[in-house]
Amino acid sequence: MIYCVEDEQNICELEVYTLQSVGFEAKGCSSGNELFAELEKELPKLILLDIMLPDEDGLTILRRLRSDERYAHIPVIMATAKGTEFDKVKGLDWGADDYIAKPFGMLEMVARIKAVLRRCEGRGVQQAVQIIKRDNLEVNLEEHKVSVAGQEVVLTLKEFELLKKFLLNPGIVFSRDKLLNDIWGYEFTGETRTVDVHIRTLRQKLGSAGDLVETIRGVGYRMAATK
Ligand code: CA
Questions:
Q1: pLDDT tens digits for 10-62?
Q2: What protein residues have CB closer than 5 angstroms to ion ligand 1?
Q3: CA of 88 to the centre of ligand 1 (A)
Q4: Cβ–Cβ contacts within 10 Å for residue 77, how many?
Q5: Cα(227) to centroid(ligand 1), Å
Q6: Is the CB of residue 193 less than 8 Å from the CB of residue 142?
């Protein structure tokens, strides 16, 4: 989920539409108040934040985000119509992850967002997210505890590592080779069946939550994308 904070409705709609068309979940907010209301419901992967807004300006919103431990880790890209060095520096100094000068093209916006997401991947995971919930699945990353519908599920280390990788990267497809490399930690040519076997037992153990681990035929596996 990406929140686009922009009071000009046509620009906001274009941003949301563009992000959705390249596969992101996106939602528009016309003010800081709307943004903070949405944050109560769902934490986004990134916030695209306009500086010139009617009530609270973007820099004030950014300061509020950075001073709240629930939101401090969320990557923020500031959008500014002014585009002056002053705004740029100010935006960065206040803790924005990037800035983009208006008017900007939608391709540039998508490229910036993807770059910031890559750079910030995993940020906040250690600080903020120790427990991940998906449907009836709950995983405590610190304590290596997994439960489905309140019932504890005992996983082997490799099964846990697989599940953790999927949960931290929802919607991303991992090839068997990639998983072998990342989880088993060495080149394991020709024996990608090892991955299939572990995925099968992982799914069985997860029971009703097993469907969250999806097979992408001919490619690999992924965790179902978050809504
Ligand atoms: Ca504006």
A1: 999 999 999 999 999 999 999 999 999 999 888 899 999 998 898 898 888 99
A2: 7, 50, 52
A3: 16
A4: 22
A5: 27
A6: no
